Amino acid sequence: MITIGRLTPDDRTAWRELFAGYNAFYGRPEVPEALFDRAWTEFQADTRMHALGAKADGKLVGITHFLVHPSTTAADVCYLQDLFTAPEARGKGVARALIAAVADWARERECSRVYWSTHETNATARALYDKVADNRGFILYQIALQPPR
């Protein structure tokens, strides 16, 4: 049985491992510990950035991070920024349950939609996403900015 809930201080070590796994999956460089600390502090405050965890048999097996922002054409929207399931828990409904929990959370706060992106080569995730959401065909662009010196 999968349970979904807010991350607690006791979840920090397992969350850190899952989040590192998420970043490794996407080939990102090693994340400085200060950024893990910042994210964790934000998730515990639960005001600007939010996180939920999925547990199976009391073990954290999935995480999601999300935030709300204004929209120019609708009520606020919820951006599901990160979603990761432990390899041993994949195919067991963890990601689907996390997405549903974020949608419920956003609905309770009267957001107009939940959206996210994934890499085009992430076929496993896309197979699920195509079942639970609409692919509206948008392509993501970004400009990496250097912090001010």
UniProtKB/TrEMBL annotation:
N-acetyltransferase domain span: 2-149
Keyword terms: Acyltransferase, Transferase
One GO MF term: acyltransferase activity, transferring groups other than amino-acyl groups
Matching InterPro entries: Acyl_CoA_acyltransferase (IPR016181), Bact_Acetyltransf (IPR050832), GNAT_dom (IPR000182)
PANTHER family per record: AMINOALKYLPHOSPHONATE N-ACETYLTRANSFERASE-RELATED-RELATED (PTHR43877)
Protein name: GNAT superfamily N-acetyltransferase
Organism: Phytomonospora endophytica
Organism classification: Bacteria, Bacillati, Actinomycetota, Actinomycetes, Micromonosporales
